[in-house]
Specification:
35% helix; 93 residues; two-stranded antiparallel ribbon; alpha+beta; 4 strands; 3 helices
C-alpha cells in the first residue's frame, strides 16, 4: 500500500520537492489559484521564481536533499538529481 502512495505522490516539476497530500505547498497561477505542478518556492503568481539553469537548480537543491536523506551524501544527491531532473516538466527538452 505504501508503494502505491509514493508512486502517486506529487513532486514539484521544477525542484523535485515532495508536495505532500494537501495544496499547502502548491505554487500560484497568475489568477491566484493553486498550481499543483510547481511548489510555492518555484512558482509564484504564474511565473517561475528561479531563472537559472537546471544545473544551477540542482546545486541549490543538493544540500536540502542530503539533509532530508541522512544516509545520502551530497555527491549521491547530485548524481540522483542529474538523472531525475531532466524528467521533470520544467527541464524536459
Amino acid at each position: 500500500m505504501n508503494d502505491m502512495n509514493e508512486r502517486n505522490q506529487k513532486f514539484c516539476q521544477c525542484c523535485g520537492m515532495p508536495m505532500g497530500d494537501t495544496d499547502e505547498l502548491y505554487g500560484t497561477n497568475a489568477d491566484g489559484s493553486g498550481n499543483e505542478e510547481y511548489c510555492k518556492y518555484c512558482f509564484e503568481k504564474g511565473e517561475f521564481t528561479f531563472h537559472g539553469t537546471m544545473e544551477e537548480m540542482i546545486e541549490a537543491c543538493v544540500p536540502n536533499m542530503a539533509a532530508a536523506n541522512p544516509d545520502m551524501s551530497e555527491e549521491e544527491a547530485r548524481k540522483a538529481m542529474l538523472e531525475w531532473f531532466p524528467t521533470l516538466k520544467r527541464w524536459k527538452n
